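Researcher: Let's continue the batch. This sequence belongs to Class I SAM-dependent methyltransferase, and it's 274 residues. Same format as the previous ones, please.
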Amino acid sequence: MNTTTTAPPADAALKARHRSMWASGHYDRVAREIIPVLGERLVASLGITSGERVLDIGAGTGNAAAPAARTGATVVASDLTPELLDIGRAEHPDLDIDWQVADAEALPWPDASYDVALSTVGVMFAPHHQAAADEILRVLRPGGRLGILSWTPEGFIGRLFATMRDFVPAPPAGVQPPPLWGSEDHVRELFGDRVDDLTFTQDHVDVDHFTGPTDFRTYFRDNYGPTLMAYRGLADQPERTAELDAALDALAAAADEGDGRMRWEYVVVSGRRR
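Model: Same format as before. Here are the C-alpha cells for Class I SAM-dependent methyltransferase:
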C-alpha cells in the first residue's frame, strides 16, 4: 500500500529556504574536498551488496549514493535541492544512480520499497525530525536496514551550529537543531520500538584542509550554505559580521589539534526495521 505523506502547506516557505540555503555556495566542494570518506564508511558499515534496493536520503551530490552504487546495488539518490543532484549526476556519469528530488519528510515512494535507507549528514537537516524518522521506516521493508551518519552536538560541526545560533534568526516553532540526530537519547525517542539492533558508533574524520582559522572561516563563508546564509543576513551589520568572524576564528583555533588538523566527530546509527 502506498501511504506517502504530503508536507503541510505552512512548511512550503521553510522548505524553499532550505533549498535555497543548500543551493547557495558550493556544498559539492565541501563533500568532495573535506568529507569524501564519510559515505564510503557508512556504506561499508551497512554491508550493502549487489541487487539490494538502496535509498540515500539527503544525498546531496552522492557522497554515499556513489559508493553504494559501486557495490552493484540499485540506488536512488534523493534530495530536496535539485542543484545538488545535478552536480552529483554530472560528477558520477558512470554510475547507475536514479537522482530524484524528494522531501525527506514526505518521501514519494510506497511503503516497504527499499532494503536499505541511509543518509550521510543529510536527513539530519530536515527540520522536523520525527516526520523524517517516520518516513525512513515507512519506506523500508520489514527487516530492512537503516544507517544514518550525523554530526554530534558535542563535535566540531555541532559547535559550529551552536556558535552561529546567536547570529541568525530563531527557527520557526517545531524546527529542531540538526545535531540532535547525533544524540543517542534523541534518536532512540524518534525510532522507539520500531527498530531492532539499534546501535550507535561514534567516530571522527580528520580534517587538515585549512591553513588556519581564517582559512577555515573564509572557506565555510564562501562554500557552506548555513554559514554563507548567516553572513548574508548580516550584510548591513558590519559590527555583527566582525563578531561572527571572531567567533568562528576562535572555534577553529580551539579545534586545532596542534598540527593544523581538526577532528570532526560523528555518530553512525544503524538498525533493522521490525
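Researcher: Any comment?
Model: The chain has a mean pLDDT of 96.
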